[in-house]
Amino acid sequence: MSPADNEPAAAARVLAVLGMHRSGTSMLTGTLQEAGVFLGKVFRDPIKHNRKGLMEPKAVLFMQEDLFHANGGSWKDPPAELEWKPLHLAVRDLFIDSMAGQPLWGFKDPRTLFTLEGWRNALPQLEPVGIFRHPLPVAESLHRRNGFPLEQGFAIWARYNERLLALHAGNPFPVIEFRPGAGTMRDSLERLVSTLDLPVRRASSEFEFFDEGIPSGTPSGRTVPPEADALYERLVEIAL
User: Fold this and answer.
1) What CATH number is given to the structural domain containing 47?
2) Is residue 3 part of a domain?
């Protein structure tokens, strides 16, 4: 037996897409898959508000929403503190086990912004990848999809993106903006794929998951709360 036979296998690279609901996380995740990131079985069927699918693993989505409920919250009102119960840890570990043998894999669920520490306990090598969107199109999208007043949409947007900024401040990672303009968006995706050093390199025009017909949200003329506008400017500062 050679010395190399006694060496542990190299840890897989694991990417976690972080971002608020209605902010381009599905688009980003689909693009990372095109760039060589294994996702496993995810929601791919078109739905009314995600015509290319959520790109989220069912087990992670349902487990994390139940984790929120177990701690007195929900996706629209994330709990201030999280205690992982044995059932949630078991689902997490089974999901990780399902990716065994994959050298580069990833997952996405907006709730992961608040559960990241629990994932890092099992995957210390985990690499976050962030995305954000202007608060107004997000609030308007939540109004259309869920019937939320704009004020509630702005509040949810702020909760998630304050968390994104806090995580980035503690240990910086690549972040892009989901913004109007197909050319601008494609350039951001190309920079991100290059920054992450992913195995499949493509010109921005070759990303097929990114759909130029899906609006990235040109802000309308409605007023954004000053605190949300200030938070958005801080996000712009950290974007690639």
Assistant:
1) 3.40.50.300
2) no
pLDDT attached to residue 142: 95
Domain contains 156: yes
Domain count for the chain? 1
Task: Find, among 217, 73, 75, 220, the residue nearest to 146 by Cα.
Answer: 75
Range of the domain at 168: 12-238
| pLDDT > 70 in the chain, percent | 87
**Burial (CB count within 10 angstroms: exposed 0-12, middle 13-18, buried 19+), residue 182:** middle
Would you say residue 98 lies in a domain? yes
Q: Is residue 4 part of a domain?
A: no
Instruction: Judge whether residue 96 has pLDDT over 50.
Output: yes
pTM for the predicted model, two decimal places: 0.90
The residue with tokens 């997952």 is 107
Report pLDDT for 131.
98
